[in-house]
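Submission checklist for the structure archive. All mandatory fields must be present; incomplete records are returned to the submitter.

[x] Identifier: Probable fun34-transmembrane protein involved inammonia production
[x] Organism: Lichtheimia corymbifera JMRC:FSU:9682
[x] Residue count: 261
[x] Sequence attached
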Amino acid sequence: MSPDDIETKTCHDQQSQMSHEIQYMSPDDIEAKTCHEQPITYHKTCHDPPMNFHHPPPPPPIIATSDVIANPGPLGLCGLALTCFVLSLHNAGAGVSSTGPNNVVTGLALFYGGMIQVLCGMWEFKTGNTFGATAFASYGAYWLSYSVISMPWSGIPGAYSAADPSQLAGSMTIYMIAWAIFSGFMLIASHRSSIGMVLLFFCLFLLYVLTAAAEYNSSVSIRTASGCVGVVTSFVAWYNAFSGLLTKQSSFFQLPIGSLS
């Protein structure tokens, strides 16, 4: 007999012996025998089918995606530059009286200089630029508040006219000094950015100081000087904005800003 025949015969003999024992045992004996044989270990017999274990496939890897945010800096700087440019030309008396109305800047201050800069500040928060977010959101709020002060329906000019018109100049002096202090803080915080940014915040600081002095002294000459500084500030802001637009991916040349980092 071959080894396979011997193994098959052995399995049949074992099964026949087990069946013969069960035939001559009472149900109580079978239960007692089962309890004494615990724990029962399963042994694979010759006729058992093969055991196939199918493991489920592993889950696909999770790929983290992030939203792409464009650089909001050039847009915010353009909003600051253009609004400051229009107001500064009025203060400098360029073709108009420096003491005349300048309410045409209210629309720019409300939308382009104000709302757009606040939005740029929120987008800078998204990119992780705390300095840019603070600067744009703050100066955007400045232009929004400046436009509200100039609007007759706000009741601010009327309140001063009804009480004491000279008090408006004193209040605007305090208003401009507060923004000069803030610009000084931003000037210090920009010392590791670039020469262009340091120059921009220095011009803003000087502009607010001159505007506060013009309001306090009711001086036309100082107001004209603040308008000239404002024009220079606008061109510095535009230069920084265009340096952010003219990148290696979008331009054949770049504008140097003198990185200090």
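[x] Structure attached
Curator remark: The chain has nine helices and no strands. Confidence is low (pLDDT under 50) at residues 20-24, 40-44.
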